[in-house]
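Researcher: Quick one. two chains, 229 residues in total.
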Amino acid sequence: DAGVTQSPTHLIKTRGQHVTLRCSPISGHKSVSWYQQVLGQGPQFIFQYYEKEERGRGNFPDRFSARQFPNYSSELNVNALLLGDSALYLCASSFNGQLFKQGAFFGQGTRLTVV
Amino acid sequence: KNQVEQSPQSLIILEGKNCTLQCNYTVSPFSNLRWYKQDTGRGPVSLTIMTFSENTKSNGRYTATLDADTKQSSLHITASQLSDSASYICVVSVWDNAGNMLTFGGGTRLMVKP
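Model:
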């Protein structure tokens, strides 16, 4: 079985551009969460989606948006990129979003570099 | 503010030695606590998960302890191997009105030298 898959694995963008990151959860999982991990720090929560609806949102500006599709895959969009958006973006998959009962399985991440 | 703090920030040990990593949290309401291992540039991989009623849990050479009264957890690694070199992240699950989410510590970067 495939685990959580993210694409692309690496990406270089210029300031002001827009980026779309993609995540496919483990088969059967209906919830996807997105995290931003700046080098040397722990991941910070951005969004959680369950059954195509936003369930939670972290303290990130409106430049960050996401959506979940009927097949439970998800996209994270970031507009007007800033240098500070350079980070590893992690996607976590869980069955129903009840992370307190289950493990959250992470993808390998997308390394975004903004220049 | 919910916080998870880890110490030390970085650690260098010799292969075969033991080490203990610390995690203090102020997260409330507490659901469970996990330790993840994260290789550089990779996603975190779960090592252990503990509910508030569990005091200790082992996974091979990794043993996690939890004191819910003092809100402290530790991860003990025995007979370290070169492949243990990674960041170890303490993660606490929070159940709030938005559903629930994971609160991450900053991690401890462990380097095992031959």
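Chain B touches chain A through 25 residues (CB under 8 Å).
Researcher: Thanks, that's what I needed.
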